[in-house]
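Whether sequence alone determines local backbone shape is best considered at the level of individual chains. When preparing material for the folding task, we compiled for one chain both its residues and its backbone structure tokens. The sequence in question and its structure tokens are set out directly beneath this paragraph.
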Amino acid sequence: MTTRASLSAQISNRTVTGYAVALLATAVALLVRLGLNPLLGDYVPYITVFPAIAFCAWYCGVGPSILSGIVALLGVRYLFIPPVHSLRVPNTPRAVGILGFLLFASVLVAMGEARRRREEVLRAGQRELEEAVKHRTGELDRTNQNLRELSARLLQLQDDERRRIARELHDSVGQMLAALGMNLAAVGTDIERLVKAAGTVNDSAALVQELSKEVRTISHLLHPPLLDEAGLASALRWYIEGFAQRSKIKIDLKFPEDFGRLPRESETAIFRTVQECLTNIHRHSESLTATIRIVASHSHVRVEVEDRGKGIPPEKQSEMASTGIPGVGIRGMRERLRQLGGSLDIHSNSKGTLIVAQVPVAATSSPSTAIALGA
């Protein structure tokens, strides 16, 4: 239907083409009738020209259809209606046949023109619909682009705020806690004769030390200073060492010696993704081991974090596959990597979990990063 409508529009919109096609169709019809003349004689002389007129009415327009009818009538009168090779008005029965031909040809032309006009209305409506869809698609693309930019900005603000809070905890709260600890130590020295009071003060000083240690740990977890100062390798080793001590999970880190530095956004995305994966292992997988493998190539960096736990339950995987909505942690990892042009894939069964994410070179302005993580 669409192909026929397109052909009709192409022919009828070009005047010369329409007339040329009409004459060609009529000539072919007359030649076919001439080839059948030994069998048909002067019987049904119009049998082959009716399809030609119908074709012209369908595809070529009113003018070419009328021309086709006139040429067909002259050709049939001259070639097939006795006396042949003459254009004189024939006898009454032949004249009635000619009038019948003209009437039927007029009906075909009228039907074809009505159909062409309906098709023109439909094509106009289709063009309007396509323009509306194109406009809406453009608006949707712009909206999606704005959402992506907003998401990237929110992640950037989150990282900046973590850095600010980490600095504030270290520079202000940490210093005050250190001063408080020294004051309590001095008081404890002065009142050593009061055993009970001294014990209380010593306990308070120990609590201050623990609190100072916790504040330092929280500050480093919010944004490890090693990540900016020494790079991803040092930050990951520091974090994994502390995590292994706290969680009692044995972690095997395999890191290339000549890894080098990545853009800050890429190092932050990798660190936060590994951090989230290890947190998921500790909370959900019940695995006693985890393996982190980092491999660098000219096109990407690949990080694998794999556990040997119970995996993601099948019903949870079905829910994630059907709704497309993962948990908050996984969604955060995926969004970070997507902002760098990467992707995140999850593979899990009863033997463990593997999450795979990739960041291409062009997105990081450094060797592209491909990350496979299991949690």
About this structure: Strands lie at 250-254, 289-296, 301-307, 343-349, 352-359, 369-373.
